[in-house]
Amino acid sequence: MDRWVEKVAVVTGASSGIGAAIAEKLVENGLHVVALARRKDKLDQLAKKFVGKKGPVHILINNAGTGSTGYLTDGESELWNKTVQLNVIGLSIATREAVKDMKANNVDGHIIHINSILGHQIPSIPGLNIYPATKYAVTALAETLRLELNSLKLKIKITSLSPGLVDTEFIPPEIRQMRKKLYEENQIIEPENIADGVIYVLSTPPHVQIQELMIRPLRDHV
């Protein structure tokens, strides 16, 4: 991680959960973190731990995401659009702008999409509706970007990091109520476990690229 010390990392969706854990871990490793989130009150609580942007972007962590429960057969178009806009379009815009900045400053950077195991397989869980489709899109976007960066001969890495069930505010309330049981049965992991995965991915030598990393609980049945 020494080569990233004093470099700038942008983390989206950084107000809580996985994003906050990643931002804190990056700060611990000597990076300047620009933490972005929609909920300013949550982000203000972290502000003292982060410093402002100093120099070009070297790392982008696309963590921001959303979803809603419901069925495809009677779902709300507005909620679907919100999910697609943030999970797919927002991620693509952030990536585009980061690559532009990296190219302009001749930076050998790293982009990490926080994906999901639902971007690789769809479990028999009712009410997931459009969310898995957006994560499958993230899987495709990561590979498309990898090929594009190769064709442009840019030394920018792209990693798709896919967590299993993580104990965050994002999980449905009924699952949160089962936290103790899930931990006892090794069916859920913590945001810090994903942050450790990010550090591992970033710590690889310049010529090594972790294309896909899946981090899931030991007894994950998905």
Describe this entry's structure for a reader.
With 222 residues, the chain is an alpha/beta fold. The chain has one domain: NAD(P)-binding Rossmann-like Domain (Rossmann fold), CATH 3.40.50. The chain has 7 helices and 6 strands. It has helices at residues 17-28, 40-46, 77-104, 131-151, 173-176, 179-184, 191-202; strands at 8-12, 32-36, 57-62, 110-114, 157-163, 212-215. A 6-stranded parallel beta sheet has the order 2-1-3-4-5-6, sandwiched between helices. Helix 1 links the parallel strand 1 (8-12) and strand 2 (32-36). Helix 1 crosses helix 7 and helix 3 (77-104) runs parallel beside helix 4 (131-151). InterPro entries: NAD(P)-bd_dom_sf (IPR036291), Sc_DH/Rdtase_CS (IPR020904), SDR_fam (IPR002347).
Oligomer: single chain
Largest sheet: 6 strands, parallel
Measured as a percent range, the helix fraction is 40-55%
The CATH H-level homologous superfamily: NAD(P)-binding Rossmann-like Domain
Strand arrangement, largest sheet? 2-1-3-4-5-6
Summed up, the domain count is 1
CATH architecture: 3-Layer(aba) Sandwich
Fold-level CATH name: Rossmann fold
Distance between the termini: 33 Å
Q: How would you sum up the global shape? A: globular
Give the mean pLDDT: 90
Please give the CATH class.
Alpha Beta
| Helical run tally | 7
Q: Using the CA coordinates, give the radius of gyration.
A: 17 Å
Total strands: the figure is 6
- Can you tell me the residue ranges where pLDDT is under 50 for at least 5 consecutive residues? none
SSE order, as H and E? EHEHEHEHEHHHE
Sheet/helix structural class: alpha/beta
Keywords: Oxidoreductase
InterPro entries: NAD(P)-bd_dom_sf, Sc_DH/Rdtase_CS, SDR_fam
Protein name: Farnesol dehydrogenase
Family: Belongs to the short-chain dehydrogenases/reductases (SDR) family.
